[in-house]
Amino acid sequence: MNFLRRRLSDSSFVANLPNGYMTDLQRPDSSTSSPASPAMERRHPQPLAASFSSPGSSLFSSLSSAMKQTSQAPSGLMEPPGPSTPVVQRPRILLVIDDAHTDWAKYFHGKKVNGEIEIRVEQAEFSELNLAAYVTGGCMVDMQVMRNGTKVVRSFKPDFILVRQHAYSMALGEDYRSLVIGLQYGGLPAINSLYSVYNFCSKPWVFSQLIKIFHSLGPEKFPLVEQTFFPNHKPMLTAPHFPVVVKLGHAHAGMGKIKVENQHDYQDVTSMVAMAKTYATTEAFIDSKYDIRIQKIGSNYKAYMRTSISGNWKANTGSAMLEQVAMTERYRLWVDSCSEMFGGLDICAVKAVHSKDGRDYIIEVMDSSMPLIGEHVEEDKQLMADLVISKMSQLLMPGGTVPSPLRPWAPQTKPAKSPGQAQLGPPLGQPQPRPPTQGGPRPAQSPQPPRSGSPSQQRLSPQGQQPLSPQSGSPQQRSPGSPQLSRASGGSSPNQAPKSSAPLTSQPRPPVQGRSASQQGEEAKKPASPHPHLNKSQSLTNSLSTSDTSQRGTPSEDEAKAETIRNLRKSFASLFSD
Q1: Which runs of consecutive H residues, i.e. helices, occur in 396-515?
Q2: Reduced to 3 states, what is the DSSP secondary structure of residue 320?
Q3: Domain boundaries, the chain
Q4: By CB count within 10 A, which of 53, 61, 207, 326 is most buried?
Q5: Helix (H), strand (E), coil (C) string for 180-196
Q6: Helices 496-506 and 483-490 meet at what angle, rounded to 10?
Q7: Could you tell me which of 125, 137, 132, 133 has the C-alpha nearest to residue 95?
Q8: Which are the contacts of 424, defined by CB distance < 8 A and separation ≥ 6?
Q9: Local confidence pLDDT in tens for the 578 residues of the chain
Q10: Containing H/E element for 118?
Q11: What is the number of alpha carbons within 13 Å of residue 144 lying toward its C-beta?
């Protein structure tokens, strides 16, 4: 014990003791502090106190601090994280296809997609673009433009497209339909849709859509001008009336249009069509009082009236007076109907002519490449910019996808049966309905010519399968000269007897009075003979014998049936003897 106390007085020894041992030594009732040696405890009070105060306290303080750190470590994981830096998303690239006269960047300045994502505007004409489209990589556009005398070359992947330029014009020799195909190949959303932009590359093709609307609404609601299409110059022999307007190919801004006064001039124009090697259209010339233009940008409508001052028959050529007119329901119907073609047009305009006799004629529809006119050009451009931002917010939001025009195939599910339709067939014990006897297909049977008016067919008709009521009297009796049996007995040709015997072996018999419902149900469930043509005489005899045993009636009935069997046996004997 003295040795232990001396060791406890050593601070290095105490510091190396485990925690449990030190705890036991500090207890008042520990075995080391025996009451038998109080003098020895009083003899060395200082070293023992020092050993418990200085090394022990440092040990306990280090242990307690370690426990605190251990206890605080998992609680620190549950604490809410501090303010993190916001993730900056890349700006969305908008490609505006338009000439350099309009700076579209200023209309999108400060605008954001969903109020969060910046918009970067790239503007170029069709002639300044090139691209490469991939199945999984989207569309990479190369742009070479001149900005203030400096050639700027960029390559980027656009996220949205605003088309404000014609993709095809025969008059200017511009054909950029391949670029439209490439943009569509890359799956890029656009205003208007690239599908509609490609379809608007042929005016007769667009006019065919106007013809559909004309037939749908009628001439009163949609007055379309009469027009004739010629794929080439060969069918252009003459016009039904003069003057007429001849339009060659696909052009814009009044180009390729000729007014023809008589037949001689018409022949000259026909030769020009032959040289152009293109299609042409002719329409009656309308002596107009003014032109009408109804435009739609998103949900904004405007109507304008343009009157020629220079006297030119083309109102868009020379001097003209333009004024905005009231938007009527008639005009709204025109532009709304046209905006539904080619899957929907977000921006479109309808051109019409008001004749001097007070009638209107619709002559053309334009898409997003239409020129802006009037005093509200800036407002219309801002409307287009807002429409583009709205579409980008819908289609290009984080995690959003461009909706596909193809609808997924959905398998058709059968409707659940209602409680009243659970049992479709007749109740148990009732005869099962058979196929119609006249005109209907019969499995494993030879065709039988229908005979109307015979008692046997009326007896075997579907109406005759209903169970007879007690008030209906006895069932019909078969006489020896009944038509159904006389066809088998009266024919001497071997080809007629099998045809008459087949229906008797495969068709179920009508219910007979005096039999129970269970017997009738079991008889109806018996399958027909799988080979009705193998042993026709035996099957016919068995059928008649079964009917003899089942239809027990008066002695006169038995005699008649026996006579019928004898006649049939004679007929079959004569057949087999031949």
Answers
A1: 455-460, 483-490, 496-506
A2: strand
A3: 92-191, 194-225+286-371, 229-285
A4: 207
A5: HHHHHHCCCCEECCHHH
A6: 140
A7: 125
A8: none
A9: 555 556 555 555 555 555 555 544 444 444 444 444 444 444 444 444 444 445 555 555 665 665 555 455 444 445 555 566 666 788 999 999 999 899 999 999 999 998 889 999 999 999 999 999 999 989 999 999 988 888 989 999 999 999 999 999 987 888 999 999 999 999 999 999 999 999 999 999 999 999 999 999 999 999 999 999 999 999 999 888 899 999 999 988 788 899 999 999 999 999 999 999 999 999 999 999 999 999 999 999 999 999 988 878 887 777 888 999 999 999 999 999 999 999 999 999 999 999 999 999 999 999 999 999 989 999 999 999 999 999 999 986 555 554 444 333 343 444 444 444 444 444 444 444 444 444 444 444 444 444 444 434 444 444 444 444 444 444 444 444 444 433 333 444 434 434 443 444 444 444 444 444 445 444 444 444 444 444 444 444 444 444 444 444 455 777 888 888 888 888 777 776 65
A10: strand 117-124
A11: 4
Backbone angles phi, psi at 376, to 5 degrees: -110, 35
Closest CA to 163 of 104, 210, 84: 104
Nearest to 547 by CA among 459, 478, 457: 478
The H or E element that residue 329 is part of is: helix 329-338
Helices (H), 17-169: 19-26, 38-43, 45-78
User: Is residue 41 a contact partner of residue 49, using CB atoms and an 8 Å limit?
Assistant: no
Angstrom distance (rounded) from CA 403 to CA 264: 55
If DSSP codes are grouped into helix, strand and coil, which group holds residue 531?
Answer: coil
Single-letter code of the amino acid located at 325:
V
The Cα–Cα gap between 125 and 327 comes to: 33
Report the candidate in 385, 419, 524 with the shortest Cα–Cα distance to residue 465: 524
40 by DSSP, 3-state: which?
helix
Q: Are strands 280-284 and 257-260 parallel, antiparallel or unpaired?
A: unpaired
Alpha-carbon distance of 72 to 66, in angstroms, equals 10
The CATH architecture to which 92-191 belongs is 3-Layer(aba) Sandwich (3.40)
**Tokens standing for 217?**
């609404």
Kindly list the distances between the CA atom of residue 251 and the CA atoms of 369, 441, 566, in Å, as whole numbers in the listed order.
Answer: 13, 62, 94
The correct CATH number of 229-285 out of 3.30.1480.10, 3.30.420.40, 3.90.830.10, 3.30.1490.20 is 3.30.1490.20
181: exposed, middle or buried (Cβ count in 10 Å: 0-12, 13-18, 19+):
middle
Q: What is the pTM of this model?
A: 0.57
